[in-house]
Every structure is written in structure tokens, then in C-alpha cells.
Amino acid sequence: MHQRRVSFDGFKRVDGLWDIEARLVDTKDQDYPLSSGLLKPGEAVHDMSVRVTINRKMTILEAASCSDATPYMGYCNTIPPDYSKVVGLNLFKGFLKAVKEMFGGTRGCAHLSELLMFLPTAALQTIASEVPDNADSEHKPYQLDRCHALVSHSETVQRYYPRWYRNQNPG
Questions:
Q1: Is 87 helix (H, G, I), strand (E, B) or coil?
Q2: Are 126 and 119 in contact (CB under 8 A)?
Q3: What is the reported pTM?
């Protein structure tokens, strides 16, 4: 009865920055009567996108969003410019909390905000293609301490990233 397609695409630009594009499309497989009109099978109820440009430190330098299809055109699609407020935020430092504070409840669009919530991991995967995950660097690899398998005291880190392993029970 309902299909939601969500996609994230990451691109490295010629200027060394990265673009992360997110899109959400909702469709129905039957007539969908709304107060604003009837949607036919396959017509988008929602077709919304967000694009951010980030640097290597995961700071958002540019942001744009659009709502090409919404149930209430002329109303729902007036909020996308507000999403440029994420410029200056860092995807790994308080980003999710800031998004909830800025766009939670009636301050934003639930669908555009949902897309933002996945940007940190989409950006990580994009930049991970550029940096070997076990590079011998003075900086801890991005992925460490971001999930249960890669917590600094895990067997995974001890085995694959011994330099960054931290025994939880020293002694």
C-alpha cells in the first residue's frame, strides 16, 4: 500500500569538499484521497531532498533542501529554506541534538529532519572511501567509538586497530 524510498549519495568535488545528497520519496499503489486532492497510484506524496557540502572535518559549509512533492503544496514546501540553518554545524559534534532543537515538533518538516538525522553516517561512509580505515595516523580513525563493535576497549579494536586499543580494566 505504501512505498518509501530513501537514498543517500556522496560525492567528492574537484575543490576537495564533499557533497552529501539525501532524498525521500513516498508513493502509494492505489488512489490516495487527500483533503488537497486525489493522488493516483505511483504519484509522489512526498519527494524531498537535502544536500550539504562538508569539509574533511565534517563541518557543513553549504546546505540546500527542496520539497518537489508534498501533500499540501504552497504550505509544506515553504520550510526548506529554513534548513540552511545547519550551515556551520559539525556532523559529529552535537549535530543530531541541534537538528532536534532547531526543527523538532512544528519548527520543521518531519521528513526533511529525518533525512538530516542520517547525514553523519552517510558522510562518514563517503569520506571513508578516501581514507584507509587503518591508516597509521596521529588521529584516531573516524569509525572508532561510534558503535558497540568499535568501542576502544573491544576485541575488534584490539585486533584491527591495536594502536587505538584501550584496555577497560588496566592492571
A1: coil
A2: no
A3: 0.84
